[in-house]
Design goal:
single chain, mainly alpha, two-stranded antiparallel sheet, 9 helices
Length: about 240
């Protein structure tokens, strides 16, 4: 994973993470897995069912839970919906993974402040506006990563750049990018798609993320620095504890 915007933000994000006020878990503790609350199913009338299947990656979340958790954590509802939906979907697809939405939120915070970095915002569709594109991976302050997508995703035909709210580099997106909202499109600039794709990547990299060593390995696969791991762990634990009340 070419997580780049985190490095670009630098000390500012470090300070913001510390202001969360929750200590990072120790080496023998993984962040708690924060639960997701779904909306109560609507009772079907007698007769053949005409209800549409639940769109992939977009379960009906309990609106009360969403609003309350957003208020408690400070995560905008649209971003929180994407993280919770991705965690719920990956729990169905890979039940042994044990990925909590709060870990995705921790990464989303460190990478792009939940899609709001540099004054940006998430549209109702989940698209980052303006698009989030990191610095060129030209070997000056980062590992050199020559272009892999002819600039299709990052607008750079010479060097790859990390893109979107979860900061995928094009080559990683080509392998792990998926459709998180059921619209038939996998777009790294869309928070639903990016969160679901990050969940797939983390589960593949770490396996059972309730194991502290595997959680650390998964986050290290995303960005292999101790500072990054601590920042994500601190944010994830804060979101778990604050969402619990």
């Amino acid at each position: 994973m070419g997580s780049l915007l985190a490095g670009l933000v630098g000390a500012g994000c470090v300070a913001a993470a510390l202001l969360l006020g929750a200590p990072a878990p120790g080496a023998d503790v993984a962040p708690a897995v924060a639960p997701v609350a779904l909306a109560e199913p609507v009772a079907a009338e007698a007769g053949p069912s005409t209800a549409a299947a639940e769109p992939a990656g977009r379960p009906a979340l309990d609106p009360g839970w969403l609003a309350e958790t957003a208020a408690r954590t400070g995560i905008a509802p649209r971003a929180l919906e994407a993280y919770a939906s991705a965690a719920h979907r990956i729990a169905r697809e890979q039940p042994a993974c044990g990925l909590g939405w709060n870990t995705l939120a921790g990464i989303g915070f460190v990478e792009s402040e939940h899609g709001t970095i540099f004054g940006g915002a998430l549209e109702g569709s989940g698209a980052a506006s303006p698009q989030i594109i990191g610095i060129p991976l030209d070997g000056v302050s980062t590992k050199a990563v020559p272009d892999t997508d002819d600039g299709r995703l990052d607008r750079d035909p010479v060097w790859d750049r990390a893109v979107g709210p979860m900061q995928f580099i094009p080559s990683t997106w080509a392998e792990w990018g998926g459709d998180g909202n059921g619209d038939g499109i996998a777009d790294p600039q869309n928070i639903d798609d990016a969160a679901y794709s990050a969940a797939r990547y983390l589960c593949a990299a770490g396996g059972d993320l309730t194991d502290p060593d595997r959680w650390i390995a998964a986050v290290a696969a995303y960005n292999d620095t101790i500072e990054y791991n601590h920042r994500v762990a601190e944010a994830a634990e804060h979101y778990a504890s604050s969402s619990a009340g």
